[in-house]
Amino acid sequence: MNRVLRAAKPWVWLACALPGAWLWALALADRLGANPAEALIRGLGDWALRLLWLTLLVTPLRHWTGWHALAGWRRGLGLWSFAYATQHVLAYAWLDQAGDVSAVLADVGQRPFIAVGMVAWLLLVPLAATSWDGAVQRLGAGRWRALHRLVYAVALLVLLHFAWMRSGKRLWDDVWVYGAALALLLLWRLVHAFSRARARAPAATGRPPSRARG
Amino acid sequence: LPAQPSALPGARTPEAPTPYELVTGYNNFYEFGTDKEDPARLAGRMKLRPWTVQIDGLVAKPLTLDWDDLRRLAPLEERIYRLRCVEGWSMVIPWVGYSLQHLIERAQPLGSARYVEFHSLADRDTMPGLRSSVLLWPYVEGLRMDEARHPLTLLALGLYGELLPPQNGAPLRVVVPWKYGFKSAKSIVRVRFVDKQPATAWNVAAPHEYGFYANVNPDVPHPRWSQATERRLGQGGLWAPRLKTQLFNGYAEQVGQLYAGMDLRRWY
Question: In total, how many domains does chain B have?
């Protein structure tokens, strides 16, 4: 299985590009419905969110299944999420704010919903910037890992941004779905971190160490 | 649906009408679902005949009008109005109908009537959106009496020279061109005259976001987006420039006096 997953990696990477290519193609051909700008901005945002959730799914899935080659997918998924988030921000700035930087800044200042989304994107920038192999050595593994824990804050901000966007029209269905999925992903990490901490300190609990699992 | 061009000042904007496909294909009509495409797909199930409108509340004598009564109540006019949605998009729509004041005269409201309520159809058998708790059903909208009596407030029976398509609020709806679109109730089955400000659908659902008045105003932002500009649908696709939104949707000259002395930020 791990061999299959490794071989599939470039295809997964390519597949991540498809929704965006499709959205842009429809948008440029004026086939995105009556309000193409809004459909494009929202579509890009949806995919940024989905890919971020998939990125966060990699580690739990790896532990559940033992398919450790999945780890090789994580960076690509994360970078694609960032790529969609960046297009989402640019499309908003261009199509909603006419490319006017001062209008964007004013909008960020006036509307918490926009500010939360913008902060989430800004927090992704250092993560994307330190996603190359050498960055881990330069920063040191501990510091790199600490920095990349920002992704949890980003996910919560993204969920808030999404929920806020839906709140005015009270469309909560998919907010619940994404919220429940994120809760599971974060809960798994808490449980996992807790059981690892116990495994590392056998003397304190007086129990034999259970087999450490990654 | 034969109609004469309206002679009322402000009733015929020279702007290019939005293509029929967009006017009838991109609608907010939550009784049929929350996606803009749902109404065009599903509203055809609505049973339009027979159709009656119950008129009651603070009136001399409650009455019920059927479609033929409503069709003949006053001469039909064509009016070309801008429609500004609270979501930040706009259209230009050639409506067919007559001023709501004709219906009000027929209803003979009492002096104590200060507001008028419009109730939309809420039929569980044909409206799948009613299963969702997004809004309280039936959809209720309302106007102050002077707003309702303003000649620009239209009772629309058609658009583009034909009967209203179901997704646009057949067989009859209100159109209040200086207010955000959600104020213009669709598929009306009841008109009720009251002495207190009505509890209206969006105002009840999210009072800090949707006020009772909901006058188009570029200076009063929605909590989550600016209302300073709007996207005119059907013009230029993706790169269509946003237009500057006008106070009272450009009808300030006709309706501004209704709100003289009112703080429009407070009464949004």
Answer: 1
